[in-house]
Write a structure and sequence with these properties.
This protein has 13 helices and no strands. By secondary structure, it is mainly alpha-helical. Residues 20-297 form the Sugar phosphate transporter domain.
């Protein structure tokens, strides 16, 4: 779809749907892992649901996904591993980290990308970008000092998730593995390639078969069952709306929506699902972190604007 001919209402719908889906996913996953600690099994089932839905959609003619190609699958193996590493450690971190702090830590990704960029390319960034990501990092450290529910394991899991997300973004940027593939096809390959790796992990970590037994026992609770099914469905919706927003708008719009979503999620996180003890340090740190995220988005927007207005 040509961005220049996209109806304004579709562009707005794509941005809003991605923001809402992304925000909802954090709270739904948090609600599930509070009662079901087997995060790797949850991720496995999310990927299985995605693969099955797309497979049946192709059989029924609902999608135009191409048949599987071995060469394409080989190109996407590392991308899939880093993607699932990011999600797996993010789910693990949500067991002990409250939502505002989780979002604050995940905002360290731009800083990690900047550092990674020093090793694989010579591109320089503006002072505004460097200062904004530094402010974001400073906000995380200040907030952590006032986090009375500090969970070292949860923090480590969130930081490892940032590392995997950074590697995923860098690898996608460098490899060009997505060329010629639709968003549905990327989702399908990613899900299929994930299943053997995730099945191996849930076995060696001892989650299986205990995770299945607990899932069966928990299914008697209507609340848990609804949250669990929503988690499976939202995993599909989130990926789809992210690609849709990028296609009909731009990658920049998707980034900005993600930051604005984080502002709303941080605010709601103080009131929903508990786990937050309000203190001057953690509130001020989260405010600084949020301002750094907004400043980063503005700086990247200005960079993009300058590039598009330069004479060719």
């Amino acid at each position: 779809m040509d961005k220049d001919t996209t109806p304004p209402y579709l562009s707005l719908f794509a941005a809003l749907s991605y923001g809402i889906a992304s925000m909802a996913m954090v709270f739904i996953n948090k609600a599930v892992v509070m009662e079901y600690a087997f995060s790797m099994t949850l991720l496995t089932l999310q990927q299985m649901a995605t693969a099955l839905l797309i497979h049946f959609g192709r059989i029924m003619g609902w999608t135009r996904a191409k048949p599987l190609n071995v060469d394409t699958a080989k190109k996407l193996i590392l991308v899939s591993l880093f993607y699932n590493g990011n999600v797996a450690f993010a789910l693990a971190s949500l067991k002990g980290v409250n939502i505002p702090m989780y979002i604050a830590i995940k905002r360290l990704t731009p800083l990690a990308v900047l550092i990674a960029g020093l090793f694989y390319k010579k591109g320089k960034h503006s002072k505004q970008v460097i200062l904004s990501v530094s402010l974001t990092a400073a906000g995380v450290m200040i907030a952590a000092l006032g986090d009375f529910s500090f969970d070292m394991f949860g923090y480590m899991m969130a930081l490892i998730s940032v590392f995997f997300q950074t590697m995923y973004l860098v690898l996608v940027e460098r490899s060009g593995a997505e060329d010629g593939l639709s968003s549905i096809e990327i989702m399908f390959y990613n899900s299929l390639l994930s299943l053997p790796f995730l099945a191996f992990l849930i076995i060696i970590t001892g989650e299986f078969p205990s995770s299945i037994s607990l899932l069966y026992a928990k299914s008697a609770s209507l609340y848990f069952l609804v949250m669990f099914v929503l988690s499976l469905v939202m995993g599909i919706i989130l990926n789809y709306t992210m690609f849709l927003c990028t296609i009909v708008n731009s990658a920049l719009t998707t980034t900005i929506v993600g930051v604005l979503k984080g502002v709303g999620s941080t605010t709601l996180g103080f009131f929903l699902l508990g786990g937050v003890q309000v203190h001057f340090l953690n509130v001020s740190g989260l405010v600084i972190n949020t301002l750094g995220g907004l400043w980063y988005s503005l700086a990247k927007y200005q960079e993009k604007l300058r590039k598009t207005t330069l004479p060719r």
